[in-house]
Amino acid sequence: MFIGEFEYRLDEAGRVPLPPSFRGDLKEGAVLTAGLDKCIAGYHLSEWKKLAASLTSSLTRDKLRRLNRAVFASAFNLHLDGQGRITLPSALRQHGGLEDEVVIIGANNYFEIWDKKAWQAEKDSSQEQAWQIMESLEGR
Fold first, then answer.
1. What is the mean pLDDT of each run of 10 residues along the chain (140 residues)?
2. What residues make up the domain containing 125?
3. For residues 62 and 84, what is the distance between their CA atoms, to the nearest angstrom?
């Protein structure tokens, strides 16, 4: 499980350290892809395989092809260097608007990498909505 919020800076080579608590879980392999909310999403290899398997033929062929293109064309294998850093591909940095300060957040079975300012806006919005969503679930 990925939990927590961690602030870092990208170096000139587009590398960022991963939180030490995340590194052990990612030694077997991981995948980075464009997140849905202008961030980068990172998945342990086993979670990535579950996601890939869930993209089934329950959609029309056209929609499935488009979804597969969107998900898999923006995906990259993640490799930790000896200092626990990962290199963020330029296409993913552009997608997330990442230039300098970033925040890496745990999101249960995956993690996200955000531009610091964009994360603050998303965090404020998410926290406000989370309480409303929680209250709607209480009666279930």
1. 97 96 90 94 94 79 86 93 95 97 97 97 87 76
2. 5-137
3. 40
